[in-house]
Specification:
Oligomer: single chain
Structural class: mainly beta
Helix content: under 10%
Number of domains: 1
Radius of gyration: 15 Å
Strand content: 35-45%
Distance between the termini: 38 Å
Shape: globular
Order of helices and strands: HEEEEEEEE
Largest sheet: 5 strands, mixed, barrel
Strand order of the largest sheet: 4-5-6-8-7
Length: about 140
């Protein structure tokens, strides 16, 4: 059984997935007002400007909340694993996984850094690791 994949990887979301395939976390940034936003949209949610630019982020953030999944959805999801809300240094919050650690060691406020995981031959997604630098952003 395969992992659940995004339904659409084109249009306004394409630069996000292309960046992940290249090993960079890109999110939208409005040149008019400076607002950073995620999830992708064709306009700035702060000022309404058309077509926000795609910018490479620092790839750092903090854990806002998390849940430890102890029974995987299917055999494709080896439990236990952590699903977390990550507050990026640039401001937006996104949902992802925290990898390469005992889920019991994750805490709210922990510093994380981006990594990338291949979910299929065509899809790579950003995931996060506890920061080796520690501390806050």
């Amino acid at each position: 059984m395969e992992k659940v994949l995004p339904q659409r990887v084109d249009g306004v979301s394409a630069p996000f997935f292309e960046g992940a395939s290249d090993g960079v976390l890109k999110i939208q940034h409005c040149a008019d007002c400076g607002h950073w936003q995620f999830y992708p949209r064709p306009f700035c949610t702060a000022c309404g400007a058309d077509d926000p630019a795609w910018e490479v982020t620092r790839g750092r953030g903090t854990v806002a909340s998390f849940s430890i999944v102890r029974r995987g959805l299917t055999k494709a999801y080896e439990a236990p694993y952590a699903v977390a809300l990550i507050d990026l240094a640039e401001g937006p919050r996104l949902m992802s996984n925290i990898i390469d650690c005992d889920p019991e060691n994750i805490t709210v406020g922990a510093a994380v850094e981006v990594a990338f995981a291949s979910w299929s031959e065509a899809i790579t997604l950003p995931v996060f690791r506890l920061s080796t630098e520690g501390g806050t952003l």
